[in-house]
Amino acid sequence: MLTGENIYLRPLRFSDWEKTIQWRNDFELKKSAMMHPYPVTEFLEKEWYEELLKSKSSKFIYFAIADENDSPVGFIFLNNINPVNKNCYLGIIIGDKGQRGKGYGSEAIRLLLRYAFNTLNLNKVTVEVVVNNTNAIKAYRKLGFIIEGILKQQFFSEGNYLDIQIMSAFSISFKKQIGNI
Q1: Spatial distance between the Cα atoms of 68 and 52, rounded to a whole number of angstroms
Q2: pTM higher than the cut 0.70
Q3: Which listed residue, 67, 134, 164, 173, has the most CB atoms within 10 A of its CB?
Q4: Which CATH number is 123's domain given?
Q5: CA-CA distance, 156 to 109, in Å (whole number)?
């Protein structure tokens, strides 16, 4: 468990599916998080959890973002973890609409970066963000992410091809900015 001031990161539990299925079927959230546009059924969500929870792969790590009542407000993950090149991708969802805008996402990312850099010994964590998601880009910049490039017309949403901004955080910069906390 990774503990912050207002939230903590814990492993996903099978019972979390009842909340995450709602988030994964929220089309506004799907658009901002660049998720697939298809509906997620109970069967598919449970199957995804079963596969995820029994997997022994070291290529991805999922955490629930939990509040003081141990209730998940979102989830965060590292995927495509490459132990040779010491890099990976980050993804995050604050699914509970009532919990957005409280800084939980930034706190969760800070906790996960500390874990990625200090525990997994990774060097670089990359995130992809739709260019018009200015709140997310601003939050990532505050956390020390730098812009590495733009993928033109990379994501299709509501009849439009949108550009994606690639942003990365680096171990040395993170440790200087946030500290080895």
Answers
A1: 25
A2: yes
A3: 164
A4: 3.40.630.30
A5: 26
Domain count of the chain? 1
The two tokens of residue 151 are 């993928």
CA angle 132, 169, 171 (to 5 degrees): 175
Give the angle 21-52-157 at the CA atoms, nearest 5°.
Answer: 50
Residues 6+ apart with CB under 8 A from 56: none
Structure tokens at 12: 């996903």
Q: Answer whether residue 146 shows pLDDT above 70.
A: yes
Residue range of the domain that includes 131: 2-177
pLDDT tens per residue, range 90-101: 999 999 888 898
